[in-house]
Amino acid sequence: MRPVLLLAVAFSAALARHVDLPAPYSDFCILQNNTNLYDPQKQFDFPWYNIDLDLPPKQRWTQVSKQYSQQIKDLIGVLIDLITPIFPNALEWVDTVFGNLEEKLPQPYRDEMMSIADDTGIPVGQIVIYNIFYEIFTVCTSIIAQDPNGHIVHARNLDFGLFLGWNPNTHEWSISSALRKMIINVNWIKDGKILYKSNNFAGYVGIYNGMKQNAFSVTANERFQLAGGYLGMYRWLTGLEPNGKWMSWLTRETLEQFNTFADAKQHLMTTPMLSPVYYILGGYKPWE
């Protein structure tokens, strides 16, 4: 048995050996050149906007849409540049299929997206595909931690790489570079008061990260399955699963309708969805 064991150990060691990846994916530590991309002094620089839920849906996002019109166009341009070399007719297909899809989408998200399209001059199909980004690409991760006193830290990173559009000079994915310029904080207003808060990308009406004061915080995270959100979208379009929820709209719905950690948890656990997801839920009380 000894020769076999030695062979197995040698084989395992060979597999564990470091392998240098080809450029531009080779190892590089940005700290070595004092080019750390994170500047903690800028952590509070992101602007705050109020989205008034008492206004008609078509009036809620006008300020954000007009101020970030170019950034939204730039992001969609990045997506198109990455997709069209693989699918040359992708833009025409997106405008046709997703432009018609908006008629089937639930309110108030439908009217909100249509208003963003009107305010920016971007075809509504492209606004829709941006807003159902998770169901198509299924990306995003976040973390949660708790100190010995029960204080919770709930955080999000920016990992929208998709293995496409790598810039070897800035050491960033092109999608991440575009999204970074679109980060905003939102106060969601109801009856003149803040109902909850979220961290958003301009032009995106759903929620990846949200917090309801004295209640709970929630973030959505990638959950990989072979069919992903494609199967859910197909079943929804064909009427096989008409009540399935879109991920970021379910997050928003939960923040709007529920006021406790337990109720939010129950709703997220039991609501049928179109795509796989891991939700991280943090409570107001210690150890929730």
Automatic annotation (TrEMBL):
Pfam family, one: NAAA-beta
Signal peptide range: 1-16
Coiled-coil intervals: none
Single annotated GO MF: N-acylsphingosine amidohydrolase activity
UniProt keyword terms in alphabetical order: Hydrolase, Lysosome, Signal
Residue intervals of the Choloylglycine hydrolase/NAAA C-terminal domain: 140-284
EC number: 3.5.1.23
Keyword Hydrolase set for record: yes
InterPro entries: Acid_ceramidase_N, CBAH/NAAA_C
GO cellular component assignments: lysosome
Subcellular location: Lysosome
Ranges where the Acid ceramidase N-terminal domain occurs: 46-104
Broad EC category: hydrolase
Stored PANTHER family: ACID AMIDASE (PTHR28583), ACID CERAMIDASE (PTHR28583:SF1)
Protein name, entry field: ceramidase
Native source organism of the sequence: Oesophagostomum dentatum
